[in-house]
Amino acid sequence: MLIMSSDVRKGLEGVVVDETAISRRDVKELTYRGYPVRELANYCCFEEVAYLIWDGELPTAAQLDRFQNEKRGYREISDYLIELIQSFPLATDPMDKLRTAVSVLGMNEADALDNDPAKNRNRAMHLIAKIPTIVATDYRHRKGLERIPPNPELGFTANFFHMCFGQVPRQEVLDCFEVTLILYAEHGFNPSTFTARIVASTLSDMYSATTSAIGALKGPIHGGANSGVMRMLLEISEPEQTQAWIDEALRAKRKIMGFGHRVYKQGDPRVPIMQAVLEVLADIEQDWRWIEIQDIVARTMLQRKHMHPNIDFKAGPIYYLMGFDIEFFSTIFVMSRAVGWTAHFMEQLAFNRMIRPRSSYVGPALRSLTGRPANRTLQLT
Ligand code: COA
């Protein structure tokens, strides 16, 4: 079949490539397995949401207890991996180190290509348990600080703060962090998740899919946007300078990080929830500067470009106010989105057909080397 350029859907915009039962997005609501994320953020912990996304139903209290206990036992990483992370150049992007470390996790499993559903479900738990340990190991190493091993007495969010900072913040901050993880956990066929599904579709292994997905998420217009937002806010620096900054940025046709979305053209339903989280943190830190700057940027983007902010616009200052280094924002995103990637990996395998689109050729017309002296002894037809 000849494919015409007019058939091409650049960026796969509007193309429905498969079915999913994991999440649904519409103009007003994002749901995981039918539950609005707004409600999940209000009533559930991150681990319950991970369980829901993987298994389709929320766990009972007993199931959650068992799940959390089991997962806490998986947090530690090998000495080999710790040494490897600590041997990387300090200036290396944390996303590159995380990508490499996840790949190493896969190397340790001789039967990683055995895609038995129970084994994959267990691998997904290992990944969610170990990724924060990898991130925190790197976090401490970059600062020249001694590594803090995971503490099985602590919950998911408290343990992560403990491993990074050596202390656990007040409950309100933990709650804020947990809400961001819940909101980041899953989002349909976004580029990194679709990457994971492509890898799954070749019957490769979950570690390869997660490694590839991290590579996709790293891109500045995907998961890299949350750090891009904070760099932009620091560049603007003061509310009084914001209007002049955004006017000039738009005149120079700069891409404003944290704005626009392929699917949400009328606004991202996660943003109001993230805004509430940001306001709690601004209040705790008594630092309203980023919100003031954001209000001016958002108002101008709506008036001039009819564009709404996306989740990353709010995530940037949230993680900054929590004290995380900007370079690590995308690795926090990975800690959460790995739930969605692994769920989609399993769903893809359950109904697999290898993903292999076609392209419309626009290169040179047919040409020939006839007449050129042969430089092989072989006579190929
Ligand atoms: N700032 C300024 N202009 C933007 C913009 C932004 N953040 N996002 C899109 N545009 C403009 C484009 O330049 C383009 O203008 P043009 O038609 O004059 O060339 C138009 O809007 C359409 O943009 P396009 O890149 O085709 O939209 P898309 O659906 O392919 O891309 C994103 C969606 C998210 C990749 C894009 O909006 C973006 O790069 N945003 C910034 C990064 C970001 O926040 N990513 C996180 C996404 S959750």
Secondary structure elements and pairings:
Layout: E1 23-25, E2 30-32, E3 35-36, H1 37-43, H2 46-55, H3 61-72, H4 79-87, H5 94-107, H6 117-142, H7 156-165, H8 171-184, H9 191-201, H10 206-217, H11 225-236, H12 239-251, H13 271-285, H14 289-305, H15 311-321, H16 329-350
Antiparallel strand pairs: 1-2, 2-3
Helix pairs in contact: 1-8, 2-16, 4-6, 5-6, 5-10, 6-7, 6-16, 8-13, 8-15, 9-10, 9-16, 10-16, 11-15, 12-14, 13-15
The chain binds coenzyme A.
Kindly describe this structure:
The protein is mainly alpha-helical. It has 2 domains: 21-218 and 326-350, Citrate Synthase, domain 1; 225-321, Cytochrome P450-Terp, domain 2 (Cytochrome p450-Terp, domain 2, Orthogonal Bundle), CATH 1.10.230.10. The chain has helices spanning 37-43, 46-55, 61-72, 79-87, 94-107, 117-142, 156-165, 171-184, 191-201, 206-217, 225-236, 239-251, 271-285, 289-305, 311-321, 329-350; strands at 23-25, 30-32, 35-36. It has a 3-stranded antiparallel β-sheet. It is globular, with a radius of gyration of 23 Å. The two termini are 26 Å apart. The model has no long low-confidence stretch (mean pLDDT 96). Bound molecules: coenzyme A. Coenzyme A (COA) binds next to loops. Coenzyme A binds at residues 11, 221, 225, 255-262, 305, 310, 312.
